[in-house]
Amino acid sequence: MSVKYTPVQWNLNKWVYDAVMLVGVVAFLWLFLFVSPELLSHEFPINPQVHNARAFGACAFVMLTVILCIGPLARIDERFLPLLYNRRHFGVMTTFVAITHASYILNWYFAFSKSDKFSALLFANTSYTQLAGFPFEAFGIFALICLAVLAATSHDFWMKFLTPPVWKRLHSLIYFAYAAVVAHVSLGILQDQQNHVFTVIFIGGALAVAGLHAYAAWLDWRGGDEVGAESNGWIEICSPEDIKNGFAKIKLLPNGERVAVFNQEGKLSAISNACAHQNGPLGEGRVIDCLVTCPWHGFQYDVTNGRSPAPFTETVPTYNLRLTDGVIQVDPKANPPGTFVEPVPIPGWQEVPA
Amino acid sequence: MSNDDKPFFVGYLDVPGPLRRFLLLACVAVIGIFVATGFLIGSTQDEPPASGFRFDYGRQTVTGVIELTPYPLLRVTQGNDLIKPGKTLMLTGQGKFGVDARAMGLEGQLAEVSGIILQRGTIDMMQLAGGRRGLKMIEGDAPAMETEPLGRWKVAGEICDGKCLNGAMRPGRGLAHKACAALCLVGDVPPVFVSTQLIEGSDFMLITGPDGTRLPKAAYDYIGQFITAEGDLERRGDMLIFKIDTDTLEVTDE
Amino acid sequence: MDQAELILLFAKIWGGVGALVALAFLSFGIDRLDEDAKGAYVFRPLIVPGILLIWPLVLWRWYILADGKDEWAKRYKPKRNSHNLFALIMPVLIIGIIAAGLSVRQTWPVNLAPVQLTEPGQ
B241 vs A77, B199, B206, B238, CA distance in Å? Predict the structure, then answer.
């Protein structure tokens, strides 16, 4: 939640998150870089540059695989949501690890020639018409550019500036980057490696990402939010009894927007389901201290006017609503963000004692 | 929709009690994944073949006759303890540079070469020192050298660059190394064909195009793949030269 | 090799224009567009790499915001369906790519022996 932008907004959970991530990455690199040469004890060891490149490349792959599993896991089981919370730091770290991999390769395989190494990277292998022997470096370059774009646009400023839908769309590049990484490995080291431990880990990781995404998409498709029925230009949501105190009911509107109708102490209010920050699903959040709290990053809003509490300035659109014959109805035309709408009391509402 | 009383995580607040155990497990799992994969991938890399620069032998200086195939070879006439007369050495420069330009005009001449040995089993290549220290013409009559034709052959194996194959890079062959090998060949490092089985006692051959030309660019697409190839074979000293016919290159099915 | 140098030249020009856009945007554009950026300077260097990479998008958004053409409703319409589409395309791609990679993988043809086709001099 921004008042004035700062480079990074820290809190305890972010520190813990980054610490766990760093311990994992440092352990990986330490084992790979310093422990494995002893265990391998090759008489003529792998060149340090290649060994290092492999360490950072494999590390970036594992990081990317873990990162990409978090999203679908959180959709399958809400308890994984905290792993989503600071995923951006994880992603930025991955970009740096990937850049380290690329620079080892560039300064080894593409150095020492009469050509500029960046130029050599692009022209050394031009067998673009064949699968085996394809310049798999191209996939790595594509993935690295994607990672760089994502890391460079990870600050909250970009989200607000580009708008969350555009930002999310830009960051969907990660799916293509991952597919490119899979191609980079499949047509590269996978063709040469004789010991198949790496093959198994690589295919296992990639299939985990593929399977989790397919499963989560299927769940979403099966149990996605329903389109509300229309009656006289208003959209029917549900009966007031269907919404527990402090929770919401989400309905899809004919124009594709999602509305979240909240019950706060027996009074109904309707706001956009999309958080102003990253379009997180507000209707899946909770009312904490009279404020709706987004399940993704904890941005908060007053349900009656869609405004974040001062000093914060985020706003979401509100919707006019009414009760007709015991059914909540919402006007599908959203009010401008931050517009106050008088809450509709539920007749005869009594808080059910816990 | 979460219409129940499941614990709800808010980033800037304390983690709710029931979630802590789960998240602790998740943290352990994430670290566990990194530890396990780092250890397993790192410690199961393939062993590179016994090959490499022999800086431990020190700089070697020998004399012989330069032959241009067009890739320059040295037919050793006056050797030392390590490199005996009768030996044939492939020559390369530092980095991804051959010594074609430096050897030009020395065909059939007596020359002294000096540099570091690259060894892969037998000694077949020398990386020359810079300038005249590495390669210079010397006075004296060059003896006539024999070239023994061995007929036309069909061989199976892989096109590599001779320098990396001989251990300048470990690993120095295969598809992950293809671009590097191509870059070496563009820089005039001698190309080499590694055979699946011994041919006339050797498991590799220097390769050239037909009629004393360089390896044609068409062959570059096959670098690092397992292929069969046909061409004329000849022997110069203890070195086999394979004049590859690029029209016959074929990727093996296996 | 010429194409490679052309690509590198393109990358340099792209980055150069991006640097100019970054300079202009961070020195006077950003303050007018974003309340939260006013008086906040420490975070601005963090924005530079992003502008270098996607400056056409920055110019487009700058134009939209400065011209008052921003439609607020669009901010609250997440593209969830396209997200699901990508999430389904990716698994298909992954499986296809791995299968293709494994299908062209070769084993060293150790049983293929060299064959002499003709004797010397024939």
Answer: 65, 11, 5, 10
Which two tokens mark C88? 């389904």
Same domain, A52 and A163: yes
The tally of domains found in chain A comes to 2
What's at C56, amino acid-wise? P
Q: What is the pLDDT of residues B113-165, one digit of tens each?
A: 999 999 998 989 999 999 999 999 999 999 999 999 999 999 999 999 999 99
Token pair of A238 as six digits: 């549900």
Both tokens assigned to A340? 């106050």
Is there a contact between A13 and B174 if contact means CB atoms under 8 Å apart? no
Give the rounded percent of residues in chain B with a pLDDT score beyond 70.
98
pLDDT tens profile A174-225? 999 999 999 999 999 999 999 999 999 999 999 999 999 999 988 888 877 7
Q: How far is CA B221 from CA B158, B178, B217, B227, in A?
A: 12, 9, 8, 11
How close is the nearest chain B Cα to the Cα of C109, in Å? Answer: 6
User: Are A46 and B184 a contacting pair at CB < 8 A?
Assistant: no
A 285-304: CB under 8 A from B: 285-286, 288, 293, 295, 297-298
Residues of B in contact with A55 (CB under 8 A): 38, 42
For residue B96, give the 3-state DSSP assignment. coil
For position A248, what pLDDT does the model report? Answer: 93
Work out the widest C-alpha separation in chain A, in whole angstroms. 85
What's the pTM value of the predicted model, to 2 decimals?
0.94
CB of B202 within 8 Å of any CB in chain C? no
B50 touches chain A (CB under 8 A): yes
- B182-236: pLDDT as tens digits: 999 999 999 999 999 999 999 999 999 998 899 999 999 999 999 999 999 999 9
CA–CA gap between residue A326 and residue B181 (Å, rounded): 77
Query: Are residues A56 and A180 both part of a single domain?
Result: yes
Chain C touched by A5 (CB under 8 Å): yes
B146 and chain C: CB distance < 8 Å anywhere? no
Question: Can you give the residue range of the structural domain that contains C91?
Answer: 7-103
3-state secondary structure (DSSP) of residue B111 = strand
Which residue type does B1 have? M
Place of tokens 């050897």: B103
Domain extent for A17: 12-223
Q: What structural domains and CATH numbers belong to chain B? A: 52-137 (2.40.50), 148-251 (no CATH)
